[in-house]
Each structure stands twice: as structure tokens, then as C-alpha cells.
Amino acid sequence: AVVSTQSGHYGRADKHRWLKFDVDSVDLTDEETIAARKLEDAKRRLEAEHGPLPKDTKIQQMSNMLNGDDLSRDLELAEKEMYDMLRNSYLTIYNSVVWLGYFYVFFVSLLRVLLEGPGAVKTNYAAMSWLLRSCQQTVFLEIIHAATGLTKTSTLATVLQVSGRAIVLFTVVDAEPAL
Predict the structure, then answer these.
(1) What CA dihedral angle connects 3, 42, 35 and 55, to 10 degrees?
(2) Do residues 105 and 126 make contact, with C-beta atoms less than 8 angstroms apart?
(3) What is the DSSP string of the chain?
(4) How far apart are CA 68 and CA 27, in angstroms?
(5) Can you give the pLDDT at residue 3?
(6) Tens digit of pLDDT for each residue in 2-57?
(7) 16, 21, 19: which is closest to 36 by C-alpha?
(8) Are strands 10-12 and 2-4 parallel, antiparallel or unpaired?
(9) Is the dihedral of CA 36, 39, 45, 49 positive or negative?
(10) d(Cα 164, Cα 147) in Å, to the nearest integer?
(11) How far is CA 41 from the centre of its chain?
(12) What pTM was estimated for this model as a whole?
């Protein structure tokens, strides 16, 4: 902007008052207000000692971040990414553990039938029932996953599916010794 000096000449103004960051006009939390004021004070001291700051200084970049919603938007994005990463890691570990349990039951049962012959079919459930029950009990966590929104599944559908399998395993299979 061009301004008139006392001598009548026109020159460029060093700063525009309307371009300065006004900490008091922004609704910030106490910690953010203190940080913004400290940053603005440090910027003023540096500019008083050394003149206007270059555009690429850290203080200028931080001041620019505080001028808008970039900081809060970046924090929200980082929190969402962290939540997604933790959720995906947990679900991967959970599903892997349950899959390994069921696979172990299948593999040992198949191996026993192949090595011992058809007579092993009758003793397989007795030998592996503890692990099969443990896996099925772990699957009840899927109801909590659906209810808390950890997975995008209907809670009712999950309850029906998990309870149906549990009823078959715990009441039908256990109640009938011939099975």
C-alpha cells in the first residue's frame, strides 16, 4: 500500500495494521491463547530487532497456522488417522487370533483323522473342545465391536449370528454325547 509521508512523498508502508494477527479477536482455549501470545510477542521482538521476517521462518509459519483453522483441522485429521490406525491394528490382531484358533482346531482334527484313521473322528471333539469353546467365546467380542461402532455391522445381525453359533455349540453339540 502506498502512504503519504510528512514530506508529501509517497512510499510503501512496512506493515498494514489490518494484516496483523489479533490474538484477542480469536476464540482460543487458554493454552492456545498463551501460545499464540508468546508467538506473537516473539515475532514482534524479532521484527523490532531485525526488521520484517522472511516468509519461510518457523515463527511466520506458526503465526500463519494460528490465523486460521488449519491447526485445529490438522489436529482433527491426525486424531482420526491415529484412531483408524489403532482400530485397524486391533481388528487385524483380533481376527488373526480367532482365525488361528479355528485353523488349529481344523488342522489338528484333520491330522488326527489322517494318522489314526476313522476312529479319531469320535475323539476329536473331546480333545479339541476347550479350544473350540475358547474361540467361540472370543467371538462374543464381535457384538461389542458392532455396538461401539468399531465395525460397520448391524448390532442385531451380529447378535443373531454369534448367538446362533453359540447355541449350536454349547447346547446342541455339548448336550448330545453321540455328536
Answers:
(1) 60
(2) no
(3) -EEE-TTS-EEE-S--GGGS--GGGS---HHHHHHHHHHHHHHHHHHHHHSSPPTTSHHHHHHHHHHSSHHHHHHHHHHHHHHHHHHHHHHHHHHHHHHHHHHHHHHHHHHHHHHH-TTHHHHHHHHHHHHHHHHHHHTTHHHHHHHHTSSSS-HHHHHHHHHHHHHIIIIIIHH-TT-
(4) 11
(5) 47
(6) 444 555 444 444 555 555 555 556 555 667 777 777 777 887 887 788 777 666 66
(7) 21
(8) antiparallel
(9) negative
(10) 18
(11) 36
(12) 0.55
Cell numbers at 14, concatenated: 512496512
What single-letter amino acid sits at 55? K
The x, y and z cell numbers of residue 50, run together, are 531485525
Q: Is the dihedral of CA 59, 65, 68, 69 positive or negative?
A: negative
Q: Average pLDDT of the chain?
A: 77
Q: Confidence class of residue 73 from pLDDT cuts 50, 70 and 90?
A: confident
Average the pLDDT over each of 24-38, 87-101, 122-136, 150-164 and give the range with the smallest value: 24-38
**Is the distance from CB of 39 to CB of 25 less than 8 angstroms?**
no
pLDDT confidence of residue 89: 94
Check residues 123 and 154 and name the one with the higher pLDDT: 154
